[in-house]
Records
---
Amino acid sequence: MKATVYSTETTEARNEAIEAARVALRENKAIVLPTDTVYGIAADAFSHAGVSTLLAAKGRSRTMPPPVLIFDEAVLPGLADEVSDDATALARKFWPGALTLILYSQPSLSWDLGETQGTVALRVPNDSLTIQLLREIGPLAVSSANKTGQQAATTAEAAAEQLGEDVEVIIDGGRRPIGAHEDALPAEALPSTIVDCTADRLVVVREGAISMEELRQVVPSIITKEELEAENRQSTAERAEERRAASSLVEEAESPTASAPVGLGDGPRASAPAAGSFNAHLVEGGQGTARVDQMRTKESIRQEIARREAAVKPLSQSDARKLLFDDADSHKSNE
C-alpha cells in the first residue's frame, strides 16, 4: 500500500494529517478522509487531474461526476446558480448534515467534474475535521471511499483495503458515522439524501440519512423520483388518450358514411297529415298542391317539369306573328 495513514487522536497528529492532505491535494492527488456519513475519497474540485484520479480509483467514468463538499452555506452562491427559495430552506435546515443538493453550477467556474450537464451536487458535512480541511483548502470533490459496486468504507482500515494503492493520504477519524457501535455493518451506514433542485419542484433522487418526512416538513411540495415518474406516465397516457380522441373525431368527420346534409329527394319520408286537419286540406285541396307526393324523388320532379313544359309549350315565332297580325287585321276590318 502506498498510502500513508494519519491518526487524529491528538491536536499535533490532527494538524500533521491536515498538512499532509493539503500537500497531496495541491499535487493533484487523491486522499481519503472521514465525513459525517462514511469515509470519502477526495480531490481538489478545481483540479481536472485530481478529479480524474478520483474517478479512476473508484472505477467510474465521467458520466458519474462526484459531489462537492463545502465548509459553509455562505459558499453556496459562489458555486451554484439559480438557487430557489426551497433549496435555500433545505440548506439552512439540514446543513451541516447528510443532505446533498443538485443545483445549476455557476457558468464562470473553471472546474471539470465530469459530464455534469451544467449542474453540481453540493453538501456541507457535519464533521469538524472535514470542515477544517475544507476551510483551509477549499471545495473538494468527494465520493464514498470504495470501489464501484462495493460497500462504502466506514473505517480507515476498510478504506485502505479498497483504495490504499490509489491515494496518497488516509486520515483516520475513527468509525463512521460518528457514534456508530463497533458491531455496525457498513450497509447500516446511511449515505446522504440527494435532492435535485434544478426543476420547479424538488425531487428526491436518493433517500438516505434524512427522511422524506423530515424534508416535507420544510418543503411540502417535494416528491420522490418514483412519484415524479408516475406523474409523467399518467401525463403521457392522458396526452395519448387526447390524441386518440381527436384522431377518432377527424376520422369520423372524413368517413364516407358520415352524416351529410340531406339533398332534395334524399331525405326520409314525412308522415302524412291527420285526416281533416288544416295540413291535410292544404295538401289535398289547396290550389296547385293537389295530389302532392310526400316522398318526391329527383326522377319524379324531372318528369313533372317535362309535363308542365309540354302543357305550356311556347308558340313559334311565325305562329305568334300570324296570330298577332291576323288578330290586328280583323280589328281593322271591323272598324
Note: The radius of gyration is 46 Å.
---
Amino acid sequence: MGAVFDLAEWQRRGPDAFPPQWASAWGDDHFGPWADLQVAGEVQRLRWIEAGVLLMGDERRPQQLPTTIPSGFWLATARARRRCGRR
C-alpha cells in the first residue's frame, strides 16, 4: 500500500485504556502496543490491532482485497496452549 506515513497519527493510535486491567506485563515497540495475559501459570502475548483499512491477501498475487477493521482489538501472537483453556 503506497500510503504516506504520518508519525504523529501513528503515535496517537492504540487502545483507549493502556495498559489493560488484565495485563500482567505490557509495552510498546516498533510493532505497536503489546500486553501479556497470564492464565493458569501460562503467559499469552497479545498485540493491539488498530482499526482501519488494509489490503488482505498475499502481496505477491494481484488479488488483494481492501478490508475494513471497524474497531481495534487485541490479538494473540501465537496459539494458546491447551492448559490455558482448562479449569
Note: The helical segments are 7-12, 82-85.
